[in-house]
Amino acid sequence: MELKSKIPSGPLEQKWDSHRFNMKLVNPANKRKYHVIVVGSGLAGASAAATMSELGYKVSCFVYHDSPRRAHSIAAQGGINAAKNYQNDGDSVKRLFYDTIKGGDFRAREANVYRLAQVSVNIIDQCVAQGVPFAREYGGLLTNRSFGGAQVSRTFYARGQTGQQLLLGAYQALEKQIGKGAITMHTLTEMLDVILVDGVARGIVARDLRTGTITSHLADAVVLATGGYGNVFFLSTNAKQSNVTASWRAYKRGAAFANPCFTQIHPTCIPQAGDHQSKLTLMSESLRNDGRCWAPVKKGDTRNPRDIPESERDYVLERKYPSFGNLAPRDIASRAAKEVCDEGRGVGETGLGVYLDFADSIKRVGEKAIGERYGNLFEMYQRITDEDPYQQPMRIYPAVHYTMGGTWVDYNLMSTIPGLHVLGEANFSDHGANRLGASALMQGLADGYFVIPVTIGDYLAQAKLPTVTLDHPEVRAAEVAAGARMKRLVDIKGKRSVDSFHRDLGKIMWDKCGMARNTASLTTAMGEIGALKEEFWRNVSVPGSDADLNQALEKANRVADFMELGELMCRDALEREESCGGHFRTEYQTPDGEALRNDDQYAHVAAWQYNGESAAPTRLVEPLTFENVQLSQRSYK
Amino acid sequence: MHFTLKVWRQASPSSAGRLETYQAKDVPSDASFLEMIDIVNGHLEEDGKEPIAFAHDCREGICGSCSMMIDGVAHGPVKGAATCQVHMRTFTDGQEITVEPWRSVAFPVLKDLITDRSALDRIIQKGGYISAPTGGARDANEILVAKQDSDSAMDAAACIGCGACVAACPNGSASLFTGAKIAHLGRLPQGQPERYKRVEAMVAQMDAEHFGHCTLYGECQEACPKQISIDVITRMNRDYIVATATKAPEMAGHGSD
């Protein structure tokens, strides 16, 4: 298989425009003849489904939630970037493009990132038109805040609930189309497989979570917007149900999976309290606008933080990265926290934490102003930890938050399976080896509102699709296989709960394929996952029936896929013999401990092709060419 | 900590339910309410018994999935918190706790503690949006919105759609939910063209879904995890009266749809 990125020719600034002109169109009267399936209803899925429906396509949307509004995009806190330059601080499309490419440690495609920066301005316009209540100045204009990896203020926000408000905007547009009968919505329905007919994606197999009934759904194109795979670590900031199953089944049907080892560890999360913990909670990066990260200079200093004098505090990010300070990118800030804790200078009962201190800001602007900016986050922190961040510094520690890797897609967002398109966090396209804060919302909405509605037309106008019916042998085979797998899981009747396996998997991944990795840890991890997988299929307990609402079965089905993904992540991390962004191989670092890239050998995307259960996957390579930026060692000093 | 739980178990929408007793042992005080149920479920699964089904996802109070009546109170004893944000340190060691699903005609039980809240989506379908098809929006800063209007729209827009307001209301009314969306959109200039058509259609759908009428008990705002004020209901009622009494939709020259 060859990876054809289909990047349009011509100057960077004109690629998207000329591509739009060159694409084939579907005339308005013909659009209603085409049926598109969208899986997922987060920012990417809801905006794609609503927009394609507005254009006239027949759309069906599938979610495992009871309402499309509950998709995990809802939990994004801090904001969304756009190159509006409303602050007159020197921002431009080119600067957002450059910051994003550099932030991703030069492992993303120039053309995709430039397009993202271009449409970022349209996203803000669209969202305001829908009634998204972004924060404003007294004069009525929109206001901005700063996020990591940028020296301009380009982040738009709605208190600490930006993801919620953006998703509600897309959800409301979606519901409007559902109300008109233009979209068929399938809630509490989980995709189990992609249906391929003659090698082309023509539908999905899905399970009704209320009844366990498995059915096939056919269409002219399939769009996956099913989010990231951070829950492979068990503990992450992702919602509990977020999973890789849709992407993984696509992988097993032939969609190459790109850069699985690129995972983002977010620096500011509430530290884990104990083994009972089911997930980690993010404290928005926006807090680093006003909070200062520090750790005691002395090892094992257990004094109350307020009693530690200035001279005995190490403001670690300000010391190491004076020009970006507390707003250093996520991968860099996370590693700095880990380093401090590895040296024995971590705080809190577990020693796995550093302080994020607001005392200086409160002194400067007052408690009220800080409350207006972060009130809900402070409240959330206090509720979980029983500590008041107005009075004492927050304790924070890195946690898995986002996955830059995902299904490989070309410039049109189509995977290596013709007809199967992938959007948002589920694809690999725009963030390289590290995503900058406030860029996930931007990418999800760019893909959904502005890219796929155009590129899907080009695909449909040219695809010559034969009529397929539900009794087609390939459809029947996919449906039967999906049912058999569910039956197999309930029939194991072992002794261990699904969560106990998931926790074990998470621990392996965090310890050996987390913030730092090396040949030894990755090799060990692959062996351990293999053994865990073997035990899972022999000893997992999934009580109840497959023909019923069965949450243990839903989890088991997803965890089985996470185990296979975990192996691939380790394999990918092992083969990428360099450090870049969130992928930090201890063997490859500069003398002062920064990521050491190897551009000669690894300035490429690695995408894995599935070769069956018993064979190793093939590592495909898409070279990355940089014509508009100079590859350099990232410096935030 | 140790707790005795009485939990509503119901196999399917049509079958009869009952309260079953479970012991939750060795629960850390830092555990959330849902993590306490996780612990109980872990033991049930090891014994080959069906775990307690409950809706949950983000576990940080924003997705609106979790939905438990804890000792008869929607989302339990912590004010301004969803079930997932209630921690066991709030309870007394050894306490007996009763856990039930939302109770409302409009929210049928699917299984155990999970109810069908799709009626709320159908209310939104009728008008809980601003018609702005993708493309063609003018520059965002061309629409000036006074900060106080934007802030008060955001106060209402904070609704997470959990349905606690309905569960807490003696009448089973969805007025806080519906009023919150009407207030969010109606407080913004972008929401004006469809303002009166919106309120008429959403209120009609509320009735069609068998939600009860609002008689201003105020239980909803007490239960609301986002502490949305019943002022939004007053606003909804006012807009509704204007809409029905004056045929305002035509006068306002409402939107394109």
Explain this structure to me?
The complex is a heterodimer of chains A (637) and B (257). Chain A is α+β, with helices and mostly antiparallel strands. Chain A has helices spanning 15-22, 28-31, 43-55, 93-103, 110-130, 162-179, 245-252, 316-320, 330-342, 359-365, 367-385, 440-462, 473-492, 498-513, 519-539, 551-575, 599-602; strands at 35-39, 58-62, 80-81, 155-156, 183-186, 189-197, 200-208, 214-218, 221-224, 257-258, 263-269, 292-296, 313-314, 354-357, 394-403, 406-407, 420-422, 604-609, 618-623. In chain A, the strands form five sheets. Chain A has a five-stranded parallel beta sheet. In chain A, strands 11-15-14-12-13 form a five-stranded antiparallel beta sheet. A four-stranded antiparallel beta sheet of chain A has the order 16-10-18-19. In chain A, 61% of the residues are buried. Chain B contains nine helices and seven strands, in the order ββαβββββαααααααα. The radius of gyration of chain B is 21 Å and the shape is elongated.
Largest sheet of chain A: 5 strands, parallel
Largest sheet of chain B: 5 strands, mixed
Per DSSP E runs of 2 or more residues, the count of β-strands of chain B stands at: 7
Average residue-wise pLDDT of chain B:
95
Shape of chain A: globular
Widest beta sheet: strand line-up of chain B? 2-1-5-3-4
Counting copies of identical and different chains, the oligomeric state is heterodimer
- Spans of chain A of at least 5 consecutive residues whose pLDDT stays below 50 are none
The spatial strand order of the largest sheet of chain A comes to 5-2-1-9-17
**Beta-strand percentage range of chain B:** 5-15%
Number of E-state strands of chain A = 19
Helix content of chain A: 25-40%
Structural class of chain B: alpha+beta
> What portion of the residues of chain A fall into strands of 2 or more residues?
5-15%
Q: Kindly state the mean pLDDT of chain A as a whole number?
A: 96
Instruction: From the alpha carbons, calculate the radius of gyration of chain A and give it in angstroms.
Output: 24 Å
Q: Gap between N and C termini of chain A, in Å?
A: 42 Å
- The secondary structure category of chain A is alpha+beta
Largest interface: A-B, 84 and 82 residues
Low-confidence stretches of chain B: 251-257
Radius of gyration of chain B: 21 Å
